[in-house]
Structure formats: C-alpha cells, structure tokens
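## Example record

The block below lists the input lines for one assembly entry, exactly as stored, with component labels intact.
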Amino acid sequence: MAKKTGEKYQNIIEAAVKVIAQHGYHQAQVSKIAREASVADGTIYLYFDNKADVLVSLFKEKMGAFVQATRERIELLERADDRLRELIYMHLWQMSQNRDWAIVTQIELRQSDPVVRAGINQALKEYLKLIDEVIFLGKEQGVFRENVEHRVARKMIFGTLDEAVTSWVMNDRKYNLVSLVEPIHNLFINGLKVEKQ
Amino acid sequence: MAKKTGEKYQNIIEAAVKVIAQHGYHQAQVSKIAREASVADGTIYLYFDNKADVLVSLFKEKMGAFVQATRERIELLERADDRLRELIYMHLWQMSQNRDWAIVTQIELRQSDPVVRAGINQALKEYLKLIDEVIFLGKEQGVFRENVEHRVARKMIFGTLDEAVTSWVMNDRKYNLVSLVEPIHNLFINGLKVEKQ
Amino acid sequence: MAKKTGEKYQNIIEAAVKVIAQHGYHQAQVSKIAREASVADGTIYLYFDNKADVLVSLFKEKMGAFVQATRERIELLERADDRLRELIYMHLWQMSQNRDWAIVTQIELRQSDPVVRAGINQALKEYLKLIDEVIFLGKEQGVFRENVEHRVARKMIFGTLDEAVTSWVMNDRKYNLVSLVEPIHNLFINGLKVEKQ
Amino acid sequence: MAKKTGEKYQNIIEAAVKVIAQHGYHQAQVSKIAREASVADGTIYLYFDNKADVLVSLFKEKMGAFVQATRERIELLERADDRLRELIYMHLWQMSQNRDWAIVTQIELRQSDPVVRAGINQALKEYLKLIDEVIFLGKEQGVFRENVEHRVARKMIFGTLDEAVTSWVMNDRKYNLVSLVEPIHNLFINGLKVEKQ
DNA sequence: AATGAATGAGCTTTCATTCAT
DNA sequence: GATGAATGAAAGCTCATTCAT
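Predicted structure tokens for the full assembly:
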C-alpha cells in the first residue's frame, strides 16, 4: 500500500527526526510531523502504513546509512584491532555529529511501543553482524583470543558504545564524545588488569 | 500526601510488576494494577501520588534491594577482580531469578515517559556508584591499571551487563544467563588481545 | 487552535444550550452535547479549546446578539425614559421568548466554575455599558435626576431585571413576564413614594 | 439520622464557611472541612445527612440570624421608609462586616447543585417576607404608593441589594459598601425622574 | 496524488460516603 | 460517639487513522 520512495517520503522522515528530537517521542504527533514536512496528515499514509512504520522506516534508513558508512571505512584497514578502533570512532563520531539523531536514537525511540521496538531490533542486527565480523577477523588474524565468546564480546562492544552515547546525551553533551575512542579501544583490547612485568 | 508504607503499599508494587511484565507497559492501566492488588482504584492514590509515582517507587524499591544485596556480597571479598566477578554474578543471577522483574526493567520501563525516566535514572546512580567503588579499589590494590578512565570502565561494565540481560530477555531467556559470568569477567579483565607469549 | 466559526460551531452551541437546559449544568457532559449536535466528541475540540470555552462562547454569542438587538431597538427612541422602558421590555421579552436560554442563563450557568464565570462577567460588561448609556442620556436630557449615582442606578436596573427573570424561571414561568414591564418601569422612574398632591 | 445540634455541629458549619471562603466552592471537599473543624471525615455524617445538608444548614443558620437581627432593628422604627433604609443598611452592613460570609453567599454558594439551591431558596423566603412586610406597611401608612405591585417592589429591593453586594465582592471590596445606603434608599423612594417643580 | 475535517475509543484521578474498629 | 481507610463511579480530552472531495 505504502509507496516508500519519493521526495515526500524523505521529507517526512527528516521531519519526524526533527520533531521527535525537538519535542520528544510522546509529543511527536502525526499532525506535527505532517506540518513540519509541509504535507497534509493524510499524505503520510500514502507513504507509510501507520505511525509505527514511520518510526521503523526512519530508523532503518538512518541505521542502514550508518552501518554502510562504518563498513566502508573499516574495510580500508587491515588489522582487526584497527578496524575495531575505527568502528568505535565511527559510532561515536557519527552520533556526535548529529545532535537530533543521537537524541532520537538513544532516548526517544526507546520509549516506543513493542511494534516499533521489533522493527528497530531488526535494523540493529545488521550492525551487530558488522561487529561480529570484526571479532571473527580478529580471531583469524590471531589478534584476538580464540577463546573469547564472540556473542559476549559483541555485547560488550555494542553495550559499552550504546551506554557511552546515552550517557553523553543525557549529560547534555558537555564533553567531546570522540575523546572516548582511545580509552574505550584500549579497554576492549587490554582489559582492566595490570600487565605482568 | 501519599503514605508510602504498609502491606498494601507492597502489594500494589508487586501487582504493578506483575501486570507490567504480563501485559506490557502500555497495557498496564491503574485499574488493572488495582485489580491485581485486590484493592480499589482509589486506594492506589492513598499510597502513591500518581501512576508515575507507582512506577518510580517500584524501581527504587527493587533497585535499592538489588544494590544492597550486591554490595553485601561483594564486600565479603578482598580483591577487586573477585568483587567485579561477584558483581557480574549478582547482576545476572538476580535478573535470571526474577523473570517479571527482568522484563519490567529491561524492556517495559524504558518506554515510560520522561517523569518516570528521571526517577529511574536517579535510582540507577546508586548502582553506578557501586561499580565505581570496585574500579577505584582495583586501582588502589594495583589489580587494575591506573591509566584506565573509571568513567569509561563504568560504562563498559554497566553497558555490557545491561545489554547482556536485555538480549537474554529478548531471546526469551533461552540460555542460562549466569553462564556468561566467567566469559564477561574474563573479557573485562584481560580484554580481547592475545597474550604475549 | 479552535476554529470558532462554521455550521458545526453553531450546532454545538445550540446543542449545549439545549442539553444544559434539559439536564442541568452538572449533567451536561461533553459527550451528551456532542450527541445532541450529531458530531463526535472529538469534533467539539476542533471548534472549542475545552468545555469551559463552549460555555463561555455560548454566553458571549447569545449575549452579544441580545445586547445588539436591544441597542438597535432603544436607539429608535428619543427620550431616556422611553429607552429605559424598551430596555426593560427587551430584557423580559427576549428571556420569555426562549425558555431554554432563560434557564441556562439564570440558573445553570451560575453553577459554573470560576473560569467560566470570568468569561461570562466579561460578556456581561457590554450590557451594563448599555444600561449606563441610558442613564447618562437621561441626565443629559434632564429626564433623570443629576444627583443619581449612575453605578447605583445601574445595579438597580440590572439587579431588578435579573431577579425578576430568575424568580420567573424558578416559579416555572407561571405568569407572563412581559406584564412586569410597566410596573418595573414605573417603579424605576417614580420610586416608591406617594406623590405630593 | 443526623443530630443537628452540639458544639461539633457549630464547629463544622464554621469550618465550612471558612473553607469555602478560602478555597472556593469547588475546592471545599468534605475532608478539608473535617480537618478545619478538627473532626474525622465520618463525624460530619453524624451531624449532617450529606454534604449538601452541610451547605443548606450553613445557609439557614446564617440567614436565620441575619433576618432576625434585621427584623429586630427595623421594628424599632415607625415609618416604612425609615424601616426600608434600616433594612438596606443592615443588609449592606452585615455583608461588609463578614468578608467570608459575603464571598460564600454571593459567589461560592451560587455554584452549588440544584439540591442545595432549593434549600437556599427556602431559607431566602423568610427574608423576602420581611421585605414584603415593609412594603405593605408603607402602603398602609400612605408612605408608599398603593398601586405599586409588591412583588415587583420586592424584586427591586432584593435584586438591587444582591447585585450591589455581588458587585462589591467581585471588585475585591475596594469601596465602602455602607456608603451606598443613602443613594440606594433615595433611588428606591424617589425613582429616577426629576421632580416637577 | 493530496487534502484535512471528522471520528471515537480509551484512561487517570477525584472525592462523597461507608463501616469495621 | 468517633474514627479514617477504603471504596468505585464518573468524565474531559487526545490523537492515529479514514475517506469524501
């Protein structure tokens, strides 16, 4: 039913991001998004099945671009540990570049109902797959330990980055998020323990 | 105004957890909670200021007990790395023990409105403080590296555990969450890298 | 926000008068008014900000027409005492013509909350101004005494008419309200005292 | 059922006046009145049938005293026109003496539901009867015109005084209400018209 | 394709009254 | 007589979605 292309399709998605970032998820009514996109309320339903579809599409579009950009950048690098650093960098850098998107992603969209959550999780899988690939590569290259459970490592990497961005957004972005790239990478690679001397 | 003690107070909190876990946040009406607690709708307002207050109180009560139990257990141990293992264990074990609570905490309560979120974040701080204490102790004992940024380490520990539990809940708890204690602890301590030989 | 024009706007106002007159102020729920107006509950909120706005608008619309009709009629007359008689006549005649409106105005709307009261008082001022004009004209024409305090005279005129209509409504309109025009006018003009002979 | 005597009965009535004057009719909950009277909520129902009964009783008690005091004073005077002046004076003076009572009587109690209104009107009749008596006496004494309709005169007297007090209360009692006694009396007696010379 | 007026289901909270103690 | 904890009915308002134009 919904025609998921065209200029208006993009306009509506951008409008949704803007409205949600500005007014919060619970104040992001369809009519407000329509006004921001300069279309009629009904027009939204020509491009999307329902409101949840707007949110899920929004997340997929943005997340797709995010993953692709990250993938392109890390594949320029050889070593898995360098790729991991680049992934951490891209994650934090992209979020710090787009204030609205960070708010929407880390705070507002988490309040959405189960249907939207399901769509979001679906879109997230692509990113988790990319993380897995880095881990597997690291093991192959003998850079990461063989006995590291890749599912556990993936949770650590995603969980830490996610928590870092959320915490940064919640603290009104008072510090430079990208400055965390090295400390985080270092911690992932070397762990907490003191090196034997 | 609200009398935040007594048997009914506890009943209502338990009923809220049950209803939210069973029907989801958006289907957890006051009347449903009241029925589950075997009180009249109005009775809830003798013990809580409003619905948000029920949810925040619920989180504070449970989280307070959670943090206290964890603190008591880890303080029986000497070394910071052992304490960290115990904290990981307590986090995962307590969540795996209480199916409803895990769902409420990881999924449903995240959908709540800003007022509830603020109350929840407040309650979470106590837990983050406990994590910080373990990190500081580790540095003092020379068990953890001095040059580890404690804020980054805290984000890693909390972010990883949180992601692990969410992931486990979302996958319908198909595996034993406690089995992740060792892998996670190992990863936190030793990192991803291969040991020099 | 509210679009205060159109056929539906008028329909809702008429429906509100009817429902309030029939069921009383405290039984005039929005849903009842909507049903009477043959619109959905939500439609009311396209034309009015809230329930109080319906009531205030209703009063303003009706009172505005009332004052205008009265003004047009009295301005056809020269002498202030004739104008006063016409004002008394119009007041009593218009009320006796519209059973529902009289009930709403004299009984039901007086039960309304402070917000509505404030709006009503605002609308009443226009009528009081008209009364004042008649008094001033009378003084200019040498028909009314110069030493009559116009504020006191205004209270007498409005207070008496208001009491007359209220009393008539409360007594289930058993007599002809318009028959009071002459006695009231006579009393206003000549007072209680016996003429010196 | 209700025992309409005793110290607590009086306390509750005084408390009701105070609470209504202070917080307004719509904020005068039974529990608030009970607290002000230093009794339990349930105790009110030992002395009154229901909330409406409290309000009606309150009005009757106060109005009874008001009428009696007025009657005693005017009966000291011979002439009906003097009695009328005294009645005007007593009405305005008593209201201006008791701020709370004036607010309750003129503003707040008018918002009450039909049951209370009916009780109030009942209590008012005694006062209207007193006004009638003055008018009849005036006619007998040849002080007031025979051809004055007493019902109309009564409406004028009560309507004007009522409007005067309401207006004074609404204007935050910025002027001295008693200063209106002479102007009002003069207007009632002599009317608006210029004396023939 | 686009519009936007109309729909109507759904829910938190208040408060007069009761009754077991 | 006095208490006050408990009751539960009742209603204004929002907003995603539709559909006639």
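Residues 29-31, 41-42, 44-45, 50-51 of chain C lie near DNA strand F (CB under 10 Å from a C1'). The longest helix of chain C spans residues 114-140.
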